[in-house]
Amino acid sequence: MVSVGNYDNNYLNYAVKLLDAEMQKVNSTFVFAYYNADHFLVELPENMKSGKEFLERRYQKWLEHH
Predict the structure, then answer these.
(1) CA 9 – CA 24 distance, rounded (Å)
(2) How many whole angstroms separate alpha carbon 19 and alpha carbon 58?
């Protein structure tokens, strides 16, 4: 998973969006998350909770297959 703020101070959100578009072209299952935050606020508790929940779901899915 790649997460980025939509208002990244270093403009990393643009690179992530380009990567996301390229990954979609090859039917990748890679997950991209965009938060309504800047570079430093991506790690706000509510955003971190969202990321943790995603990782827990993916881990449970992995456990089902292994």
Answers:
(1) 25
(2) 21
Whether 3 and 42 have beta carbons less than 8 Å apart is answered as: yes
- pTM score, whole prediction: 0.72
Tokens representing residue 46 in the block: 């509510």
C-beta separation of 10 from 43 below 8 A: no
Taking a C-beta distance cutoff of 8 angstroms, is the pair 47, 35 a contact? Answer: yes
- What confidence tens digit (pLDDT) does each residue in 35-54 have? 888 888 877 888 788 878 88
Q: Which of 46, 19, 48, 45 is nearest to 32 (CA)?
A: 19
